[in-house]
Amino acid sequence: MRLLVTGGLGYVGSFAARHLAGAGHEVTILDDLSTGHRRAAGKLPVVIADCRDVATVSGVLSHHRIEAVLHFAGLSLVGASVADPAAYYAANVGGSLGLLEAMRRAGVDRIVFSSSAAVYGNPSTQPIPESAPLAPMNPYGRSKAMVEGILRDAAAAGQVRAACLRYFNAAGASRSGDLGEDHHPETHLIPRLLAAAREGQEFTVHGKDYATPDGTAVRDYIHVEDLAEAHARALTLLEKTPFTALNLGTGRGYSVLEVLQTAETLLGKKIRSKFGARRSGDPDTLVASTNECKKTMNWSPINSNIEVILKSSILWHSNNVRS
Ligand SMILES: NC(=O)c1ccc[n+]([C@@H]2O[C@H](COP(=O)([O-])OP(=O)(O)OC[C@H]3O[C@@H](n4cnc5c(N)ncnc54)[C@H](O)[C@@H]3O)[C@@H](O)[C@H]2O)c1
Hints:
Elements: E1 2-6, H1 11-22, E2 26-31, E3 46-48, H2 54-63, E4 68-71, H3 78-83, H4 85-106, E5 110-116, H5 139-156, E6 161-167, E7 169-171, H6 189-199, E8 203-206, E9 218-219, E10 221-223, H7 224-240, E11 243-248, E12 254-255, H8 256-267, E13 273-276, E14 285-286, H9 291-297, H10 306-319
Parallel strand pairs: 1-2, 1-4, 2-3, 4-5, 5-6, 6-11, 7-10, 8-13, 9-14
Antiparallel strand pairs: 9-12
Nicotinamide-adenine-dinucleotide binds next to helix 1, helix 4, strand 5 and strand 7.
């Protein structure tokens, strides 16, 4: 298919773009470079534009005769969304509305949307089924839930066919170490841990009073290459189902201390650490129920063992030391 990947210069989008191109799709990337990196595109064609620029985006869709859009573009820092909610709603909801209007003008109706486990808030049932109530705890999560609602309504009206993929914690890097996570600032556990280990700095574990076995937050880490394959399957699913919302996770959670200890074992050294304050809006546990994805897309993660994730991240970080 001819595909537009918005946010394809970012972490998850660049893996999906590469994977889909490798599977024979014709991929064009659209990105405003706000948090992305030009080199993440490799040899794929890139248009630098904001999703809210409806005229430009509809022109790109028409020019490349795009058949489906994979919409990764957005802002994704929970703390920043609490500090400046309007900017988050403008980027995530406004960006999605701009894109939908551009798709309408260009006659494109298929969309796969990057949603998030953040739509669930702090759910009482673990692993979390897709049927759990959406109760986001911060503007970032609310912006994702809003876009899901918009897509559900647009699908019911026959305007689009949409798959909302609720990622749990995207993690890992390519096996060759040439593509990986590069956020500034970095808030995600694994790159923060590896940076602390490399620089000999003390690592801060946020919170030790979560309602979990060891008191630190438990998350479900999913390898970006598994996420990429799930997007390929979601494109097929769009042909059968006008609207779906699916979890992308492994069904197995790891606490911060478990990840820290596994990283120490793989690196063969101790990472100095201390406990700091909890981050506001951080739920205790987020682990995906994976049944629905298996059933509807015949998709299960194959690279998401925590050691595989950490080994690939260690290679990427050792290849990409910042000066
Ligand atoms: N990384 C995760 O663990 C995770 C988990 C759940 C959901 N998500 C969602 O997945 C998507 C990708 O996440 P990521 O970690 O790759 O983020 P990222 O910041 O690495 O990538 C986002 C990309 O979108 C681009 N972008 C942002 N706003 C844009 C706009 N208005 N127009 C055009 N381009 C724009 C950025 O330049 C960047 O290249 C996001 O929507 C995020 O909310 C990520």
